[in-house]
Amino acid sequence: MAAAQRYLTPLSRGVLSASLRPQVASPSFICPLQQQYRYASKTARSKDGKPKKKKPMYTQYDTRDAIQFTLCDAMRYLRAYEAGRSTTSVKYEVHIKLRTKRDGTVIRNQIRLPHAVRSDLRVCVITTPDSRAAKEAKAAGADIVGEDEVFEAIKAGKIDFDVCICHTTSLANMNKAGLGRILGPKGLMPSTKMGTVVDNVAVTVRNMRAGSVYRERSGVVKLAIGQLGFSPEELRTNLSAFIAALKKDAAAISHQISKDIAEVVLSTTNGPGFSLNGDFKSESSPPTHELTGC
What we know:
- The chain has 294 residues and is of the alpha/beta class.
- Helices cover 32% and strands 18% of the residues.
- The protein has two domains: 57-116 and 210-294, Ribulose 1,5 Bisphosphate Carboxylase/Oxygenase (2-Layer Sandwich); 120-209, 3-Layer(aba) Sandwich (Rossmann fold), CATH 3.40.50.
- It is built from nine helices and ten strands.
């Protein structure tokens, strides 16, 4: 009994002392985590308590009241953001926002821009090493050529290429190797639709080294259209070619699916985005030679 009293006495003192302490109100912004989660809702609801319906179209903003820039003015500010960086490593990127539905076919294609953006593109060609296609691929500038050794390297996580092309005779072996779960999420899996499963690998390699792949994601198509050292005229030519290709892709999808260009935004690798108004230059724009090179 004495032992029990010895342990209960300190406990009673703690309870008594706690009850005699002055009660200090905690600030309203400090609350237990469980209270925060108690009122959390998994489904967005409207004012009347009903679940909000998902909008069929992507959200669009009225650009008439927005601050927009000419191409030369946007380049002027972006070059200031990239001051001190290499003009070949930094890229101009264009983000084209489409007025389109959330569900449906997306635009996905490749383009060979008039002025090549990347010169360090590494191309992999899947074909039998001793075939004629392998020799043509190496002569065209392919960096990796092979079949079984390429499969093993990819499965081991050694993906040292930016574009993957497959010869039609190696398509069955590639599918049997199960590379789709590895290359698919990275956008590197060859497919007939994307024009990367071909008979003439030499022509495809040359086009790929000077080409770029683009894909619509959440109603926006993004593509690198030039290096920081490009002139405004070169950038304008690439941008016009890309917009023309995008309109052609949208028209070829279906007459029942409408895809219109809502906004064109120009940015760089480390810079912000500038909404373009469609003009080349303004009265206050610097000379084009000052926006070229270093």
